[in-house]
Amino acid sequence: MKRFFIIIFLFAGISIFFFAMPSQANAAPNIDDIEPNHWAWNDVVGWIDFLYLGNPIVEAKPTKFEGYASSSVGFIALDCGTSPAPPADCDPPTAPEENWFVSADASGLPTQTVKLAGWAWNENIGWVSFCGNDSGGSEFVGGTWVCPTSGNPTYQVEITSSGTAEGEFTGWAWNDVVGWISFNCSNTLTCSGGSNPVDYKVKLKVYPTGKSLTSPIYNMCLSGPCGAAVNTITWQGNNGGLANSVKFQIATDCTSGSLPGCLTSSADFKGPNGQNSTSYTALPNITMNIRLASHNNKQYVRYKVTLDACNMSQSCFPPATPQVDDVIINWSP
């Protein structure tokens, strides 16, 4: 059961409110756990599960993947450093066996696809290539794995995105022992129709974008009417690797007596310029100064926190996983 609670400390004429809230996003692993959105297929191996029997391991990061999938031939690891059984030390690579991972080129987002390259590893079937042609597989160039520099790729795994906080894998990977690995039923024309439709794909999770939570109204005067100033706001948690993914606005008034009714509309919540069009943003554990001209000589305060898994200033791959654990408002009479 999700619970909210407030703890109030009083010292030196200053009150600090701690407002604890439940997590609004999951942990870092970000493969979709909704069926059938975490499966790839191979005619020899069968199903390949990117949720590892329901335990999220695989994580899409801005330039690479980490973790491993499970299959009938054992783990298929996407990164040397997080492999359960790497075949060699993860050294600066000149060949796949020296340091391998599945790379992600998201430079074209949000209007283009994320193109994957590089290598995965399985102890029983060996290397799995995510991009290649007749001349070979991916090559290590400029600190990452890229498609063969000679000729265009004839196969490649990609992630399609429309600029939202989601992405769907398409295309094929190759292994010399078991052959092609399909990441989407659209490759095999089995998504729908026919006598035996089979829907499967590997997909990134959809995280909340623009989801807001408004706090209760807090009385800054413990006895009788008064006028207080809101000084700072700080939040604890993580921004999921995306700048400005956690945003705050503050609403105050000076009504005495019963709780005010004027802290309910969006126009009551203001950012650093005193307008509803802006928000306070900072990294976790960084104190933000509140605009005194907007929030001085007030009695009641509340805040609105908004989580964005993707914003216009950065790529949407991977979608951010912002999480707010505590909000701290500092005020003084």
Which features characterize this protein?
single chain, 333 residues, mainly beta, 38% strand, disordered N terminus
Distance between the termini: 36 Å
Please, how many helices?
1
Regions with little confidence, pLDDT below 50 for 5+ residues = 1-27
Helix content: under 10%
Strand content: 35-45%
What's the pLDDT, averaged over the residues? 81
- Silhouette: elongated
Any idea how many domains? 2
Largest sheet: number of strands, sense, barrel closure: 8 strands, antiparallel
Could you tell me the radius of gyration in angstroms?
A: 25 Å
Number of extended strands: 29
Report the order of strands and helices: EEEEEEEEEEEEEEEEEEEEHEEEEEEEEE
Structural class computed from helices and strand pairing: mainly beta
Textual characterization of the structure:
The chain is mainly β. It has one helix at residues 185-188, and strands spanning 5-11, 14-20, 39-42, 46-49, 59-60, 65-66, 68-69, 76-77, 102-105, 114-122, 126-129, 131-133, 136-137, 139-141, 144-146, 155-156, 158-160, 167-170, 172-175, 179-182, 203-204, 209-214, 218-219, 229-238, 246-253, 280-281, 288-289, 300-308, 323-332. Strands 9, 10, 11, 17, 18, 19, 20 and 21 form an 8-stranded antiparallel β-sheet that branches. A hairpin with a 4-residue loop joins strand 5 (59-60) and strand 6.
